[in-house]
Amino acid sequence: MAEAENNFARQPEFEPFWQGLRDGHFELPRCGDCGRFHWYPMIRCPHCISANIVWSRIDGRGRLYSWTVVRRAFAADFEDKVPYTVGLVEFGAAPGVRFVSEIVVAPAQALVIDMPVEPLFPATNEALPRILFAAVES
Predict the structure, then answer these.
(1) SS3 for 20?
(2) What is the pLDDT of residues 49-74, one digit of tens each?
(3) In terms of Cα–Cα distance, which of 75, 61, 56 is closest to 2?
(4) How buried is residue 125: exposed, middle or buried, by Cβ count under 10 Å (0-12/13-18/19+)?
(5) Residue ranges of domains in the chain
């Protein structure tokens, strides 16, 4: 399954996203015609079907919509990480987008719905770098 996900993420539509992460910033696809953001990258806007897709940098700060604690590794790459927290992040700068990522720097029991989170960009030269989000206590 992890291999299939990697192949999906290697599609050319994703490259501006990966390059943004390698450069230390967060970019999302947005329709140049209707102006709406979307995730996952697509060759056409899922809202108006326009092919005019542009990439827009956002600061990446968002709010925690939901989360879960993963206690069983479903892939060998994650066996040494369990337990870890995966969250669904919403962005004020990109209405309608929810992004799944690991939530770090806060114990799961301290998380609350609508808690502010901010992106962390681990230094890497990987082709598919990871983005993590840190919970920010108010």
Answers:
(1) helix
(2) 999 999 999 999 999 999 999 999 88
(3) 75
(4) exposed
(5) 2-135
